[in-house]
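@channel sequence for tomorrow's demo:
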Amino acid sequence: MKNLALFFLLISLLATSANAQKKYVPKRGDYTFRTQVCTSVDEDGDSVVDSIITYVTNKKGTYTLVSHPQPLNPEQWTGFGDIVEDDINFDGIPDLMICLGPINAFGGFTYDGYVWNPKRNKFIQVEDFDLIMAPEFDKKHKTITGTYRVDNEFEVSTYKLKNNKALLIKSTRFTEKE
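structure tokens (generated this afternoon):
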């Protein structure tokens, strides 16, 4: 009889736990992140990064975000898969930037951007965010500025985020005199 009572108690606890899991709605702070940099071998026999998988985990489980960086050798270049949590859409909630690696030797890193969507309780990719080189955030004007450099040639571009898309609003090119 004791075994039967224990069996029913165990079933009841499992059912209660399953119902609690169904009712759980993840909050932004419940998430942890890790990345896996995936490589392949190019036609020259060199190792190159071909994708970055970001594992986004909460109490309910894990989903993945997949990024496609420049196919560079990870032994010669750094930054692939680094995770930056910052408020990229200026709503006061930390979002994600996944480093795609350098775009050039002057430190111009690019990122995939993902904003927290509180209605869907998940991160949503910002279209064309990877076009912003070395992003810097202006909270006052709610803009993102990217700077691209080749030798002494510079391009400074300013973006706004609208409907999960990075929109170019201004771009200036100039040459720095030596």
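heads up for whoever presents: The first helix runs from residue 2 to 23.
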